[in-house]
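Methods — Computational structure assignment.
A single polypeptide chain was analysed. Its primary sequence is given first, followed by the predicted tertiary structure written as structure tokens.
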Amino acid sequence: MPEGSDNKRRASRLQHELPVAYRSVGSFLTDWATDISQGGMFINTRAPLPVGTDVKILIQLPTIESPIGLNGKVTRVVGLEGKDRVVPGMGIQFTDIDPSRRQQLEDLVKRLQRDLGS
């Protein structure tokens, strides 16, 4: 990481589109996760939920037959607001994730990075 960078991410991240479904109060939506790590993900959507919203997430990883269910909270929203080359969406931080599931995600991200050349 370059010196002076404000990127505080410590976990391996996968920069690859993966289908994701998520549920919040009164809605069930599907979009694409474009960035995933053991601690969270970014969901590309033109209709992000408000910061602080709790969500239940189902993500289909290419190496697993069944989707993984996770709980999360919206921590960041990126809107269009006339910005060029900005991907709209929302950052989700996983909540209530047990250490074995966190390690499973970390292992999967590393394997997919290797296999997909990300």
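Note: Residues 1-9 have pLDDT under 50 and may be disordered.
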